[in-house]
Each structure stands twice: as C-alpha cells, then as structure tokens.
Amino acid sequence: MKIATWNINGVKARIDNLTQWLKDSNPDIVCLQEIKTVDEGFPRLEIEAMGYHVETHGQKGFNGVAILSKSKPDEVSRGLPGDPLDEQARFIEAVFSLPGNKALRVCCLYLPNGNPVETEKYTYKLAWMERLQQFAAQRLSYEEPLILAGDYNVIPEPHDCFDPKVWANDALFLPQTREAFRRLESLGFTDAVRATTDAVQLYSFWDYQAGAWPKNNGIRIDHLMLSPEAADRMTSTAIEKHVRAWEKPSDHVPVVAYFDFAA
Questions:
Q1: Range 139-162 average pLDDT
Q2: Of the four listed, 236, 245, 259, 261, which is most buried by Cβ atoms within 10 Å?
Q3: What pLDDT shows up at residue 100?
C-alpha cells in the first residue's frame, strides 16, 4: 500500500498537477493540505473519475485538508479535538479496513506555521502541537496502525534544511518547536523518512523566492509519523521531488511511504 502526503497549495490552481501525479504515482491513500477551498469547491468530480473517494475539511481561501483513497473509509472525523473554539480547518481523520478484520487509521494534518514568533500565531502553533500530542497518545492506546501525515511546519534537525543559520529564528526551527516534535516521537512515533535514510539534502519544500528550487535551498517539513504497528509494516519511503519542476507547481512535493498490511 502506498500512502502519500502533499501540501498542494491550492487544489483548484494545482488540479492538473494533482491528476497527473495521481495517474503517474498511483497512491492508495493521499493526504492533501492547503486545499484552500470550502468543501463544495473541491474538484471532486475530476478526482472521483480517477477512482478515488474524497473526504474534505475545507475552508474558504486558506488552510483546508483532504483525504483521497481508493477504498471508502469506514469512519471520518473532522477537526483536532481539544479546542472547540478553533475554527481553522487543519485536521481530518479516516479509518480504513485492512485484511484480517483490522483497521488502519490515517490522519491528515496541516500544522500552523507559527510566524511571526513574537505573535499569538506562535502561541497557537505550540498549543496545537500540544493538542496533537494528547490526541496521538489517546489513539496509540488502540494499538492499531496509525499514520499522522501532513505538513508539520517543523524542521526536525539541522540536516533537514539547507542552512540552519537561515532558519535559526524561524517558528519552523525554534528549539521549542523541535522539542514539541520530539515529544510526539517519544510517545512511540517513527518519522518514516528518517527511519529509512540518513541522507542529507533531503527536502520536501522549496520556496518560490530567491531561486530556492534550482539552488536546492530546501527544507524537510512534510512528515509521515507512524505508530509502532504502522512502522512495523513499512517497507520503504520516497520524496517525489520531480513534481516541483512541473509547470505551476506547489512549493511542496509529495512524500510517500510503502506498507505491507497483508494479513
């Protein structure tokens, strides 16, 4: 089974790229972030015509997440628990049936950026990460394959960016941010990509500005975090960076992990 995460940066603007990638890459489950549309505005027909079921948690103009899947999920829930006043569309969860009467739980998340750090935006980011940790701890108790996939807006380690000095004071790389990410790992989650490679210059995002893509001035902020039951079934990972060179690209590329969930 191939499971991917991709910050699409506007699904309407990127629909041609999305459909081409779905055709080429043929993933089983896709977590999309920054769809930037209300649920009714999602180009559902184009995606469904390719054999995918579509679940969205949209918002007008920004944020928004979606899960595309070849099989219909048994359950879907929207919104990260812990703050009933949070109206930002950043989280959707789906449960799928696996062989042997087992379940696979996939969560698609778009973690807040947090910049500027001296504002309430960074406070919101850290609070959101705390809510995610509490949610993840509860879901781990189910002892089933669980994947938390998305744009975390977190650079975990210095070798996950082209120049740590450039990012030293950024919300994506501050010590408090990275510590919150490590707390998630310490619950028992595995960073899929780093479990399969220690390679440097392995990025998932390149800014549109300052020639970041041709210079390979990237960062790795899109992650698939795996519960022990999912990590045991993972066989490999890939970052499909060639997509960044397409016309009208997102500034992120798909990150994928492969699993063997055979009974």
A1: 98
A2: 259
A3: 87
Residue 151 designated active-site: yes
Count: domains in the chain: 1
pLDDT in tens, 63-84: 999 999 999 999 999 999 999 9
Which residues lie closer than 8 Å to 205 by C-beta, 6 or more apart? 7, 218, 219, 220, 221, 222, 251, 252, 253
**Choice among 16, 24, 83, 110 that is catalytic:** 110
Residue tagged active-site, from 28, 52, 74, 151: 151
Instruction: Output 12-17 pairs: Cβ under 8 A, ≥24 positions apart.
Output: 12/36, 12/37, 12/41, 12/43, 13/248, 14/248, 14/249, 14/250, 15/43, 15/46, 16/248, 17/243, 17/246, 17/247, 17/248, 17/249, 17/250
pLDDT tens by residue, 18-27:
999 999 999 9
pLDDT averaged over the chain?
A: 98
- Residue 145 and residue 108: Cα distance in Å, rounded? 14
Active site residue 110: yes
Indicate the pTM of the whole model: 0.98
Q: What is the pLDDT of residue 76?
A: 99
CA 3, CA 236: separation in Å to the nearest integer?
11
What pLDDT is attached to residue 7? 99
Per the structure, the complete domain to which residue 21 belongs is given by 2-259
Task: For residue 257, give Cα distances in angstroms to 35, 100, 226, 231.
Answer: 21, 22, 10, 10
